């Protein structure tokens, strides 16, 4: 999913977007949804099904260091979170209004790590 800073949705102002491979992202969504409370915010997927993008609070990109993922920093010029997807060639997996405003970066980091371990274990069984 190719995004431009001006295309990334805002959650109470600006937000950042963590992009991961779809397989790991889907595992992470499942992990987050099984956790306590509503731990996952809006999530985008690209039309090719290759990546997922998690909306996270602004400033997350400055310290994001999870291998296999990227975090795009916005400059506050994003659009509001609407039911229509904010990035051409994408759609909402979890749309705004059905999820928290943003996923907590620490919780997302842990879920992505657990997802990577699950995928590695599944792949080693083949």
Walk me through the structure.
There is one protein chain. This protein has 126 residues and is of the alpha+beta class. The protein has one domain. The chain is built from 2 helices and 7 strands. It has a 5-stranded antiparallel beta sheet with strand order 5-2-4-3-7. A two-stranded parallel sheet has the order 1-6. Strand 3 and strand 4 form a beta hairpin. The N terminus is likely disordered.
| Count of helical stretches | 2
Q: Note the main sheet.
A: 5 strands, antiparallel
Number of strands: 7
Q: Which H/E pattern describes the elements?
A: EEHEEEEEH
Fraction of residues in helices?
Answer: 25-40%
Structural class per helix/strand content? alpha+beta
- Gap between N and C termini: 29 Å
**Overall number of domains:** 1
pLDDT < 50 stretches? 2-12
Beta-strand residue fraction: 15-25%
Which geometry do the CA atoms define? globular
The multimeric state of the shown protein is: single chain
Overall pLDDT confidence:
82
Physical arrangement of strands within the biggest beta sheet:
5-2-4-3-7
Radius of gyration from CA coordinates: 14 Å
Region (Disordered): 64-98
